[in-house]
Amino acid sequence: MAVRYGSPLKRVMTFHVPLALLVVATLFPFYWMVITSIRPDTELYNVKMNPFFTLHPTVKHFEYLFDLTLFPRWAWNTLFIAAVSTGISLFCGLLAGYALARLQFRWAPPLGTMIFITYLVPPTLLFIPLGDVVKTFGLGDTPWALILTYPTFLIPFCTWLLMGYFKTIPREIEDCARIDGASRIRAMVSITFPLAVPGILSAGIFAFTLSWNEFLYALVFLSSPQQKTIPIGVFTELVRGDVFYWGPLMAGALLGSIPVALVYSMFVEHYVTALTGAVKG
Amino acid sequence: MTEQRIEPMLAESARPGAAAIPAPIVVAKPRTRRPRRLGELLEREHILAAVLLAPTLTILTVFIAYPFVLGVWLAVSDKVVGRPGAFVGLRNFDVNIHDAIFLRAFQNTFVYTFIATTLKLALGMLAALLLNNHFRFKRIVRASMLLPWIVPTVLSTLAWQWMFDATFSVFNWVLMNVGIINKRILWLGDGVLAMGCLITVNVWRGMPFFAITLLAGLQTVNPDLHEAAQIDGANAWQRFWRVTLPLIKPIMLVVVLFSMIATFADFQLIYVLTRGGPYSSTHVFGTYAYEIAMRAAKLGQGASISLSLFPFLLMVIIFQLWYIRRSD
Amino acid sequence: MAHETLRAVDRRAFLKLAGAGTGAAVAGGIPGVVAAQKAPSFPKGTKLSILEWVSFVPASDVEFKRLAAEFGKIAGVEMTVDLINMNDLNPRIASAIETKSGPDIIMMINNWPHLYADGLADVDDVAEEIAKRDGAFYDISRKINFVDGRWKAVPFTMGSGVWNYREDWFKEVGANKFPDTWDELRKVGTALKKKNLPIGQAFGHSLGDPNSWAYAVTWGFGATEIDDKGKVVINSKETIEAIKFTVAFWKDCLDEGGLAWDDSSNNRAFLAGQISATINGASIYFVAKRQFPEIAKAMNHAHMPKGPAGRFYYQGGQAHGVMKYSKNPQVAKEFLRWFMDRPQFDKYMAANDGYVGGPTPYWEKHPLWEKDAKLATFKDAPKYGRWTGYPGPPSRKASEALVKYILVDMYAQAIKGMRPEDAAKWAEGELKKAYA
Predict the structure, then answer these.
(1) Could you tell me the pLDDT band of residue B120, with boundaries at 50, 70 and 90?
(2) Is the ipTM above a cut-off of 0.85?
(3) Chain A contact probe: residue of B52, B306, B322 with most A CBs at under 10 A
(4) What is the pLDDT of residues C42-93, one digit of tens each?
(5) Which of A36, B181, B287, C336 could, after both became Cys, cross-link A250 (CB 3.0–4.6 A)?
(6) In whole angstroms, what is the distance from residue C83 CA to residue B66 CA?
């Protein structure tokens, strides 16, 4: 939708100014986090100083993060858990989305609804009974406790997204393949799935972000410092009693966002395109 | 081998004007055990559907349905940490109804969810409209707009906490230096103001999701429709209201649905920013359930608080789904 | 193989014991076992895991881990130590007890032994032994760790919230030493607030500092939440006096940001020079000494002022519980016995630099207290300590009252404008529900 504007002034007022305000409001806290992570401690506690810049930037906080905490290990854990959960969720979502979008069977609508209903159950209710389940399978304090529980809130959205995407892919393509002798499964895998790659990408990015971000289950199911994820590690080990180590906290927050931000910057255009496809369906 | 030859024959016989298949061939098809039988089975829609849905249903059953049932049992028991619980019927819920903090949490959850979702929708829509244009740095701006959603919530909320800190708030610093106020504003020290802060952070964090999803929706709208409307004399606002909005209603409703569910059950943000204070005035279902279950070790009571949001959430969702179906 | 390692180490341990003058009269434990020429029978591959809070004194965490590793070497046990934020211990403990799996030793704070009594193993042998050797535990340590006739956790340290104040600023308004009564403090505070140097107090939802005021003032004016029979008696003349005092104190002396403060806000405010005094543990002084030496020089600590009924601290202390589900309770107890033994605990206290007190009066005589006179207050504070739910037991119901911040909210609402009588009545209603 290309809106046609009148005079240049009008364009500035109705486009550039709102856009600028939006960008500033969105990114201001990040600027804040960056500044805090490079400010020396003495400045952080000084109320009178201008909080917007510092003349004595320091890398001490980042050093603290890497030397005195297991941050690299946490980063690896978080990456591993997020990647595998995403993989599982995509696998399940792909198959389930296809089934719900393409196949006619009696249970389709109720099952679809059931899958979404599970999304309604809040983690604050589940985490104690889930602890029991996790322990029964012997998964306590391993990344697998999270890898198998995260899909519970990732699958519903992935399923919806891919379902919508599949609906936009014309049936005829598959039917042609089947007439040519391919089985349903072959048609599904070789024809339909490749066409849904943008949808898969966007579902994957969404799932990855949510896994990266999760807090409650990671807090309860993991115990050793070596197993922690970034949100848990940074939050629980850099807040010591009533002393907040703000510098390293913000450094951790920044470094904890970079991988995901990079992934997004590579795929954001695909993400938008993919959602467009899902939307049409 | 017999089976393979049947299909083309069936296809043949399905063509108009073809001869019927001699009955004996069809009826006498031997049911022999072959490796290809699995493949045959999977050609049947409901079998294939069952197989495809199996992984999903397994995971959801083991890790949600089963614990959910346990959770419901907890909610009707008097379980505390370390002791087995006994069935007490609806007593926990009765206690909740008479608990002023619970009622406050009830109110807060709804207020928080509805206001935040409305704002996210409005601002997300605005952002999507703006981002739907071509301009320099489009890619960078679109990518950077997603940052609030990407940063781990726990950590970005801590940053906000410090931005609202009674002593160190950067907002106070700016407002005081510009001369708008001369006394510090105690952002998190007043019940209503603190709710406002919570909503602000939630909107900041969630708006990108709305923006990007709505942007996708906007891009499906055919520009020709706008051309036509403009030729007919519609101005920008009318074009938006009459042309764009109806077309993106489906995606709008879905994204509102998902976001509302998540916001209703929100825990992290409030826990980190206010912990339910000042004087229990910003508790929501999630945080209050957690406090009771964890710090007072009353698992049964905590579960009943968590469960309380379920019926209302269900009602909201059913309404939305019905609305979507209706407009399909 | 375990034998040889033990031989070498035990001699050193034995010598150290003899040298420290405590003699070999320690019943049980590694040194005792050695004295009896028996080898401990921990099979190879035994593991022990410990969950603690992360201390604001990083050096003490380092020392704790080091000591744990040392024990591991001596006993041939694989040790794991996990440190997390105090506030995040509860969900882990609950999950561990419910799933009957997790760390073998978990730190208990305040009255948690009462809360989690069903999941904790009895540790009478270790506790009694320490009490016999070092002199009885503080009354409050006993009260919070002794549940239904048995010791459910071994007392570890006592962290106290005392008054941190700026000596220099107090002198400027004529107070050469910290006021001894609440009324005197109010006079000094009023003068300070007029100079834009108010006192700071948290009334937010955080378990430490807000309760330090709420309970100290309530008890100081002679009121209590319940009586020794468990009846709710908060709605009393004394309570209303305490509320009136707090509201007046708020107006005259306190920084108005306090309603939003959590445990860390007053630290920040004090170190930024925004407030002249506050109730806090030793974490402010700790950070000051390292990063703001001028403030460290200008500040000092003092006891809670006296009210009409006396001087009281809201205290709890920290202890170690051995979990009932643990597969290695013997190893756990051995560790605690060894750790709380003088040579080891001495090192731990030293690493803490005086920021925490020990569990028995014995540790008041430790030379580290001589190092810095400003930390003397922390040494004596436990003497005036009382627990949540005084004079009743620090039970699960007391925990519920604490978790709902009933007392703190009573004061906060009065500050916000509720009439003291109504606030007391409100607290009564809430406490009745918690103690029902």
Answers:
(1) very high
(2) no
(3) B52
(4) 777 788 999 988 887 888 889 999 999 999 888 888 998 988 888 788 888 8
(5) A36
(6) 32
Distance (Å) from the alpha carbon of A67 to chain B's nearest alpha carbon: 20
Same domain, A254 and A187: yes
Q: Does residue A259 lie within any of the structural domains?
A: yes
Q: Total domain count for chain A?
A: 2
Amino acid at B134: H
Say which CATH number the domain at A270 has: 1.10.3720.10
Shortest Cα–Cα distance, B56 to chain A (Å): 5
**More reliable by pLDDT, A203 or C40:** A203
By three-state DSSP, how is residue C164 classified? strand
Question: Which among B80, B184, B194 has CB closest to C257?
Answer: B184
A103 and A49 both lie in a single domain: no
Judgement on whether residues A185 and A119 belong to the same structural domain of the protein? yes
Residue A3 lies in a domain: no
Contacting residues of A for B230, CB less than 8 Å apart: 4
- Residue A1 located in a structural domain: no
If asked whether residues A122 and A177 sit together in one domain, one would say yes
Chain C contacts of A216, Cβ < 8 Å? Answer: 91
- Do A188 and A214 reside in the same domain of the chain? yes
The helix or strand, by DSSP H or E, that contains position C176, with its residue range, turns out to be: none
Which residues of chain A make contact with B71, given a CB cutoff of 8 A?
A: 121, 125-126, 128-129
Q: How far apart are CA A85 and CA A151, in angstroms?
A: 6
Q: Find residues 133-192 of chain B whose CB sits inside 8 Å of chain C.
A: 165-168, 184, 186-190
Average pLDDT on B284-303 reads 86
Is B81 close to C118, i.e. CB distance below 8 A? yes
Asked if the C-beta of A219 comes within 8 angstroms of chain C's C-beta atoms, the answer is: yes
The chains found to touch B (3+ Cβ pairs under 8 angstroms) are A, C
Task: For an interface test with A, give the residue of B36, B38, B56 to mutate (most A CBs within 10 A).
Answer: B56
Sign (positive/negative) of CA torsion B238, B241, B246, B247? positive
pLDDT of residue A3 exceeding 60 = no
Instruction: State the pLDDT at residue B8.
Output: 58
Burial class of residue C50, CB neighbours in 10 A (0-12, 13-18, 19+): buried
In a shared domain, residues A50 and A72: no
244-273 of B, contacting C, C-beta below 8 A: none
Render pLDDT for A88-134 as a digit per residue (tens, 0 to 9).
999 999 888 888 887 777 777 788 778 877 888 888 788 878 887 88
Q: Do A94 and A163 lie in a common domain?
A: yes
| Contact by Cβ (8 Å): C86, C262 | no
CATH architecture of B100-326: Orthogonal Bundle (1.10)
Residues 81-120 of A with CB under 8 A from B: 88, 91-93, 95-96, 98-100, 103-108, 111, 113, 115-120
> Radius of gyration (Cα) for chain C, nearest Å?
23
Domain with CATH 1.10.3720.10 in chain B: 100-326
Categorize the per-residue pLDDT at A86 as very low, low, confident or very high, splitting at 50, 70 and 90: very high
Q: Is the dihedral of CA C96, C101, C103, C105 positive or negative?
A: positive
Neighbours of C183 (CB within 10 A): 14
- B81 and C115: CB-CB below 8 Å? yes
Q: Is C73 helix (H, G, I), strand (E, B) or coil?
A: helix
- Return the beta strands (E) in C230-307 as ranges: 277-280, 299-302
Which chain C residues contact residue B190 at CB under 8 A?
259-260
User: Are B162 and A120 within 8 A, CB to CB?
Assistant: no
pLDDT at residue number C107: 93
Distance from CA of A35 to the nearest CA of C (A): 18
**Domain encompassing residue A265:** 63-280
Half-sphere exposure of A38 (CA within 13 A, CB side): 14
Query: Residue A78 in 3-state DSSP?
Result: helix
Contact B189 C260 (CB under 8 A): yes
Shortest Cα–Cα distance, B194 to chain C (Å): 9
Collapse the DSSP code of A104 into the 3-class scheme (helix H, G, I; strand E, B; otherwise coil) and give the result: coil
